[in-house]
Design a protein that fits this description.
- With about 650 residues, the protein is mainly beta.
- The chain is about 5% helix and about 30% strand.
- The protein contains three helices and 43 strands.
- The chain has a six-stranded mixed sheet, with no helix packed on it. A four-stranded antiparallel sheet has the order 3-43-42-41, with no helix packed on it.
- About 55% of the residues are buried.
Length: about 650
C-alpha cells in the first residue's frame, strides 16, 4: 500500500466558508468504533444520489492504517468479448447495505447477498442471462434497489424486495431474505420489458444497466439502447410498475408534444421509436413526489435530419411526478444533440447555501465538463446559464440549434478548445503526427457538428464526466467529480459506403445509422505510439466550492502503471470510469482510474493520502457503511475491470477497514 503524509491542512482562503473536518483530534484507537450504524440503502448512498456518508471514523490522520478486511469473489468469469461470450463485461457495481446485509449484482446479472462484516455469501440468484446476446453497451449491472412492503410483517415472504434489471431487459423482484423470486410480482417474479419497447434487431440492442428507482409503491425503470444503428431503434420509454404486483402504473413516452404516431414510428404498445432513453441512474425526492431523470439523445447520435422532432426531451434533466409520470419540468443541457453528449449520470440532490439563503437543488454533471445547478422544484438555474452562438456548418439535410447553453458562475472542469499547437507526444515524431491529425479535422469549438471531412470532438462522447457522476457534501458545500480529457474524431460517410468503410477500418467503431443518409466512424485521437494526442492529465479529480462557484482544487487521477507498455507508476492522470465517495471524516475515496488502485484524497486540499493495490480494475464507485452501533466503518469497492478498455478483469469485491 502507498502511505501518504499524515496531514490535515486548513484551506486558508475559504476557512470562513468551507469547514473541512479533520476527524477526531487523536485519530487513534479512542476514536474508533464509537459511532452509530449507518446503512447505504440506495445506489448513490441515499435516494438523491449524494454519494456521501456521515461516517467519520476514517480520517486524514488515520487513513494510512486502512487494510483489507475481506475479499469476496463472485466466481463469475469476466469476458473480453473474444471467447464464447460475445460481449465484454464491466463490473461497475456499487452494492447497497440494507437490514445488515450487503446486496450486489454482477455483469451477468447474478444477484448476491453477503455478510457485510465478513464477506461471507448468504445467497445468490442467477437469472440465467442469455450469454449469446450481443450486448452493445457491454454486460453491466451498476446496482440493485430495495423496497419494504408496509403491508407485510416481520418474517413474511418478500416483505423486503430486491429489484434488479437485466441486460436482456427483464425487471425482477427477489425476496431479500432468501433470494427467491417474489411470485406475486409480474409472472413468477419478473416482467419482460422487451415487447412494449418495439422490434429489436438482435438480443442485447435493448438493455437495463442501471438500478431501478423506487418511489412510494412504484419501481421505475429506464433502458440503454444501442447507439448509431438505425433510426427506428427501440423506444426509450420510462415505465413505473407496482412494487407489489408488477402491474404497469404509468409510462412516460419521450416523444415531443403533438407527435403523430404511426405503425412505422411506434412500438406495439404505442410508444414512439428512437426516442431518447434513460440509461443512467435516476434520483428520487420522496417528500416532493419527484423522480429526476437524466435523458439520452434520440437515435442515431450523429445525424438527425431536418424532419426529425424527437429531441424535445433529449439530453435533459427532467423532473417527473413519481406517482403519475407527469412531467413537472425539463431542463435541456444540449439542444438538438449531435455529439452523443447525452446526460450520463444520476442527478444529485443537495441543499445549496448561497447569497445568504438555502435552496433545495439538483446538480447535473455532463460529458461537456459543465455543471448545471437547478432549483429542485422548478428546474430554474441557480447559477446563470447563457445561450451562446455555436458553429453552423452542416452536412446537407441537417438541422442545427443556433445556440447552446453554457453555465456561468461555475468552473468548466475540462478544456473545451484544442489547436494543432496543443498536440502532445513523447517525441517530436509522434507529436507531429498528432498535430497533423488535429489540423486535418474540422474544429470550431466544442459544438462543431459532424462532417464528411471529419470533425474533432473535444471533449468527446466519453466525457468530461461520465456515469460516475458527482459526490456532494451539503454541510461543507463541496462537490467532488472525476473527469476525462480526451479528443475524438467523428467522420460521416454516405450510408451506401458502410461495408467499404467497415472493411477499411476493422479496428474502429463504424456504424451504419440505417435510415439516414450518413453512416458514422468514431475514433479516439491517438498518436502512432497509442498515446492520447491531448496533453495530460487525461483524467482528473476536482472539488468545487458550491457557495462561491469556484474550483477549490483539481489534481491528476491515476498512474501509467497499468496502462503503459512499461509499468511506470507516474501520476499523470489517466482515463477513468466510476465515481467518487465523500465521507464525514474529510476524505474522498475513488477507484475509477484505469490502474488498479483505490485511493483516498484529503477533501480540503486534494492531496492523495493513501492508495491500495487491487486485484483488478476498479471501474466502479465505492460505498461505505457501519453495520452496527460501535462497529467498524467499511469502505467497499468492486474490482472487476472494464472489458472494452482492456483494463485488468476480475470478479472481486474488496472491503477495507482500519487495522
Amino acid at each position: 500500500m502507498h502511505r501518504g503524509r499524515r496531514s490535515c491542512r486548513a484551506v486558508g482562503c475559504l476557512l470562513g466558508l468551507v469547514l473541512v473536518a479533520c476527524g477526531p483530534p487523536d485519530g487513534g484507537e479512542g476514536a474508533r468504533r464509537s459511532g452509530p450504524a449507518q446503512d447505504w440503502r440506495d445506489y448513490g448512498g441515499d435516494p438523491g444520489g449524494s454519494r456521501h456518508t456521515p461516517l467519520d471514523e476514517i480520517t486524514p490522520d488515520n487513513v494510512e492504517r486502512l487494510e483489507v478486511a475481506w475479499t469476496y469473489r463472485t466466481g463469475e468469469p469476466p469476458s473480453d468479448g473474444t471467447g464464447d461470450v460475445r460481449s465484454t463485461t464491466a463490473f461497475e457495481n456499487t452494492p447497497i447495505l440494507v437490514d445488515e446485509t450487503l446486496y450486489l449484482c454482477t455483469p451477468m446479472n447474478r444477484v448476491i447477498a453477503l455478510d457485510p462484516e465478513t464477506g461471507e455469501e448468504r445467497w445468490r440468484y442467477d437469472p440465467q442471462l442469455d450469454l449469446s446476446g450481443r450486448y452493445a453497451n457491454q454486460m453491466v449491472c451498476r446496482g440493485v434497489s430495495s423496497w419494504l412492503d408496509p403491508e407485510r410483517g416481520d418474517g413474511e415472504v418478500c416483505r423486503r424486495r430486491i429489484f434488479t434489471g437485466t441486460n436482456d431487459a427483464r425487471l425482477i423482484a427477489l425476496d431479500a431474505a432468501t433470494g427467491r423470486p417474489c411470485g406475486d410480482f409480474g409472472v413468477a417474479g419478473e416482467i419482460d420489458l422487451n415487447p412494449a419497447a418495439g422490434p429489436q434487431g438482435w438480443k442485447g440492442e435493448y438493455q437495463v444497466t442501471s438500478p431501478p428507482a423506487v418511489a412510494g409503491e412504484v419501481v421505475i425503470v429506464g433502458s440503454a439502447v444501442s447507439d448509431n444503428q438505425r433510426d427506428d431503434a427501440p423506444s426509450g420509454v420510462v415505465r413505473a410498475f407496482d412494487a407489489r404486483s408488477g402491474a404497469l402504473r404509468w409510462a412516460w413516452d419521450l416523444a415531443p408534444p403533438g407527435f403523430e404516431y404511426t405503425p412505422a414510428n411506434s412500438s406495439g404498445a404505442g410508444y414512439a421509436l428512437s426516442t431518447p432513453n434513460v440509461w443512467a441512474p435516476m434520483s428520487v425526492d420522496h417528500e416532493r413526489d419527484l423522480v429526476f431523470v437524466p435523458t439520452g439523445n434520440p437515435s442515431p447520435d450523429y445525424y438527425r435530419g431536418s424532419d426529425s422532432n424527437l429531441d424535445h426531451f433529449g439530453s435533459s434533466t427532467v423532473a417527473l411526478r413519481a406517482s403519475t409520470g407527469q412531467v413537472v419540468w425539463a431542463f435541456q443541457t444540449v439542444h438538438r444533440d449531435l455529439w452523443d453528449f447525452d446526460v450520463p449520470s444520476q442527478p444529485s440532490l443537495f441543499r445549496l447555501v448561497r447569497n445568504g439563503s438555502e435552496r433545495d437543488a439538483v446538480v447535473q454533471a455532463t460529458k461537456m465538463g459543465f455543471l448545471f445547478v437547478l432549483d429542485r422544484e422548478t428546474g430554474d438555474p441557480l447559477f446563470p446559464v447563457e445561450e451562446r452562438p455555436v458553429p453552423q456548418i452542416r452536412v446537407p439535410g441537417e438541422k442545427l440549434s443556433p445556440t447552446q447553453p453554457f453555465p456561468t458562475g461555475l468552473p468548466h472542469l475540462v478544456p473545451i478548445d484544442l489547436s494543432p499547437d496543443d498536440a502532445w507526444g513523447l517525441t517530436p515524431w509522434d507529436r507531429g503526427a498528432c498535430r497533423d491529425r488535429i489540423e486535418a479535422l474540422r474544429f470550431e469549438g466544442i459544438f462543431t457538428p459532424p462532417t464528411e471531412q471529419g470533425s474533432l470532438m473535444y471533449p468527446g462522447n466519453a466525457g468530461g464526466s461520465n456515469w460516475g457522476g458527482v459526490a456532494v457534501d451539503s454541510d461543507r458545500q463541496l462537490l467532488i467529480v472525476n473527469t476525462q480529457n480526451l479528443a475524438w474524431a467523428v467522420t460521416l460517410f454516405p450510408s451506401e459506403d458502410f461495408e467499404a468503410e467497415k472493411a477499411a477500418h476493422p479496428d474502429l467503431e463504424v456504424s451504419p445509422q440505417k435510415g439516414k443518409p450518413y453512416g458514422m466512424r468514431r475514433e479516439l485521437l491517438l498518436s502512432p505510439l497509442g498515446i492520447p494526442c491531448t496533453p495530460p492529465p487525461w483524467g482528473s479529480l476536482a472539488a468545487v466550492d458550491l457557495t462561491r462557484g469556484e474550483l477549490l482544487w483539481q489534481v491528476p487521477l491515476g498512474t501509467l502503471r497499468d496502462v503503459a507498455p512499461i509499468p511506470i507508476p507516474i501520476t499523470v492522470g489517466v482515463p477513468n470510469l466510476g465515481g467518487p465517495l465523500v465521507t464525514g471524516g474529510g476524505l474522498v475515496f475513488i477507484g475509477a482510474a484505469f490502474d488498479n488502485y483505490l485511493r483516498a484524497f484529503d477533501l480540503g486540499t486534494g492531496e492523495e493520502l493513501w492508495r491500495a493495490r487491487l486485484p483488478a480494475g476498479p471501474q466502479a464507485t465505492p460505498m461505505s457503511y457501519r453495520v452496527r452501533d460501535g462497529g467498524r466503518q467499511f469502505v467497499v469497492i468492486a474490482a472487476g475491470g472494464y472489458g472494452r478498455a482492456g483494463t485488468n478483469l476480475g470478479d472481486y469485491v474488496v472491503a477495507f477497514a482500519l487495522e
